[in-house]
């Protein structure tokens, strides 16, 4: 919590002064009563002693005074609020290794299917783009808020040779920087990279692309797919085939996430991948905003004053 007028908090010094004065008055009150009678005999002279109740009204008053002084200081609190607009670029690896079936029905199908859960997690006003990358990076769908088009673009992705991760990040950054809101500002953007390994082709290194994204204030959230048991079948000459092991390689994905200020997630299975998308949806769907909460303190102070007055009138009313 922060305060717009912190000097007003000096007024809180009054609270301990009042407490000290009250304690001193209570001691003097007991001493004064002892001059005329024996304190032990007072229960025989008074029907009922208010005991703790006579301190409650003052305690409520002091809390109300504290809230009033803090309200004068114009307090601000950092709250999580929903974003109205943002751009999310889904960069999906379509290299041959994404055809491995260690994540059912395949790595690419798992990424494509669970992307629908991610689209359900983010607000409908968000623009979503889809970038595919194998030997080259390409725009499967430019930024749009049409979820039907986004699902169609995901279904259109197919595997091919190569993995140009750096080019894909660079292309996604360009798409995000071109977006504008109604007032001409660039909305918050994020890149979600779904892949199973390292960069194998392309003109731009992943590190350089991640640095460019960071300078544009675009975090990269990288998701690693696959297990150590991943295998693909590749055709050879004369109709022969060969099986190649394609274990995931997390180093590059972890590096681009760290460099860009994003986060790295390992999702070796379909249920885990769905959980990652849900977490990303909640991260991208909110932002931190400082808001003034003076009204809360003012309202609380007024309510406490009324409560203190009502308790005092109820417990200590005088019968004529």
Break the fold down into its secondary structure elements and pairings.
Layout: E1 2-3, H1 14-34, H2 42-45, H3 53-72, E2 75-82, E3 87-93, H4 107-121, E4 127-133, E5 137-144, H5 147-155, H6 165-177, E6 189-195, H7 206-215, E7 220-225, E8 231-235, E9 241-245, H8 250-260, E10 263-267, H9 270-284, E11 286-292, H10 294-315
Helix pairs in contact: 3-10, 4-5, 4-9, 6-7, 7-8
Describe the protein's architecture and organization.
With 320 residues, the chain is an alpha/beta fold. Helix 4 runs antiparallel to helix 5, helix 4 (107-121) runs parallel beside helix 9 (270-284) and helix 6 packs parallel to helix 7 (206-215). The chain is 44% helix and 21% strand. A hairpin with a 5-residue loop joins strand 8 and strand 9. 32% of the residues are buried. It is built from 10 helices and 11 strands. The strands form 3 sheets. A 6-stranded mixed β-sheet has the order 5-4-3-6-7-10, sandwiched between helices. It has helices spanning 14-34, 42-45, 53-72, 107-121, 147-155, 165-177, 206-215, 250-260, 270-284, 294-315; strands at 2-3, 75-82, 87-93, 127-133, 137-144, 189-195, 220-225, 231-235, 241-245, 263-267, 286-292. The model has no long low-confidence stretch (mean pLDDT 79).
